[in-house]
Write a structure and sequence with these properties.
The protein has 309 residues and is α/β, with parallel strands linked by helices. The chain has helices at 14-17, 31-43, 58-66, 89-107, 125-140, 153-160, 178-181, 184-190, 223-236, 242-251, 266-276, 283-292, 298-301; strands at residues 8-12, 48-50, 72-76, 112-117, 143-149, 167-171, 195-199, 258-262. The chain has an eight-stranded parallel β-barrel with strand order 1-2-3-4-5-6-7-8, surrounded by five helices.
Length: 309
């Protein structure tokens, strides 16, 4: 509800380019299915899309489906895994340039709306060469704005301290206690020039799966008990489902501009469109959830720490 407006739906495309997500049972959709989904989203009023060089062919699918439409697409720099630790400045610049050119071609755009670092450490890696080259692209007009996709509060604080960061994407859901306690939200409030997108609202789908078997096995996490708590709170706050509760909570945060939700079927799109048409939870209801939610291990809240199944 930043600026008095509920956070908008941002269509995440990782599932359109890869078989992704702990609760994904349908796999990567066929190309015609993906294109129809994206076109239907744009026709329904979705104006913001999220993708990345590392999401398989997701960029290409967005480019084909959305060409000529008045939408905003945020992509992410390639992971640059081919660069050795002692790569020269010219090698680093060439790798950055290749990622940008590849995104331009795939998305069919001369100017990229927003490019995020997929790895926050790249802002200072190679003596800052990656970030400097990206800022040069902004000056040249190849990129409109830059940002960082972060995994944890420490990365978020570091990114917010950089005035050239104008977009921040972070994982956030109604169980995630880390950001407020670490002072990140307070720093975000100070940076009104930074667009904030929250991802992992459903924690890769496990929060809405109603199936304890898809939850990662982490010490201190009683999945059936958390599922019961989520359902009880959905009823208590008059939500139609746990998904409604989860999305209503995040959209009710005054510091969030957009909520990135990945989807691989048109049925999921229609369900999410219906959810964002509902009013978000009030600040009072959000505070009640924060006061009563179970304090779960940080290892659950960060999928990067989940054990291999």
């Amino acid at each position: 509800m930043r600026g008095g407006r509920p956070a908008q739906l941002v269509l995440g495309s990782v599932q359109l380019g890869l078989a992704y997500g702990a609760a994904n049972r349908s796999g990567k959709p066929a190309r015609p299915v993906a294109l129809r989904l994206l076109q239907r989203a744009a026709e329904a009023g979705v104006t913001s899309f999220d993708t990345a060089r590392s999401y398989g062919d997701a960029e290409e699918r967005l480019g084909d489906a959305l060409k000529g439409r008045n939408v905003r697409t945020t992509t992410k720099l390639a992971p640059l895994t081919d660069l050795s630790p002692d790569a020269s400045r010219d090698m680093v610049r060439a790798a950055v340039d290749k990622s940008i050119v590849d995104s331009q071609k795939a998305l069919k755009r001369d100017v990229l709306d927003c490019v995020l670092l997929h790895r926050a450490a790249h802002r200072t890696a190679f003596k800052g060469a990656i970030w400097r080259r990206l800022k040069e692209h902004v000056v040249q007009g190849t990129i409109d704005s830059l940002g960082v996709s972060v995994q944890n509060p420490e990365e978020a604080r570091d990114a917010l301290a950089d005035a050239s960061v104008r977009h921040l994407q972070l994982p956030y859901n109604l169980l995630d206690w880390r950001w407020q306690g670490a002072g990140v939200i307070a720093e975000i409030v100070k940076r009104k020039d930074v667009t904030i997108h929250a991802r992992s609202v459903f924690l890769q789908g496990v929060l809405v799966a109603e199936d304890a078997s898809v939850w990662p096995r982490i010490a201190g996490v009683d999945a059936p008990a958390v599922i019961a708590w989520l359902n009880e709170k959905a009823r208590a706050f008059g939500c139609g489902s746990v998904a409604d509760l989860c999305l209503g909570y995040v959209r009710g945060q005054s510091w969030i501009d957009g909520v990135v939700i990945g989807m691989e079927t048109e049925d999921q799109l229609e369900a999410n469109l219906a959810l964002v048409a509902r009013a978000p939870l009030s600040p009072q209801d959000c505070s009640l959830i924060e006061a009563r939610r179970p304090h779960l291990p940080a290892a659950l809240l960060d999928p990067a720490q989940w054990p291999w199944r």
